[in-house]
Amino acid sequence: MTADLALRVLLAPRLTAAERQTRLTRLAHALSDAVNGRVPCPDCGHRGPHDDNGDRREPMLCCCECGSHFDAPR
Fold this sequence. Notes:
Layout: H1 2-11, H2 17-35, E1 51-52, E2 60-62, E3 69-71
Antiparallel strand pairs: 1-2, 2-3
Helix pairs in contact: 1-2
């Protein structure tokens, strides 16, 4: 998903260098948040960082605010 999105940004023919850099920076921040468990909880909206279950096959996060379990972003 993310490698494909980055490749599409890099190969987009009508973007200026500044637009391309802005989109790649935004993508890098989103990836960093997802990797560090900083995603909004679907129940309470808290942005974490949340604990994960350490399972690579079925990753889940546990909200540090309300304790709800939800699927981790992939």
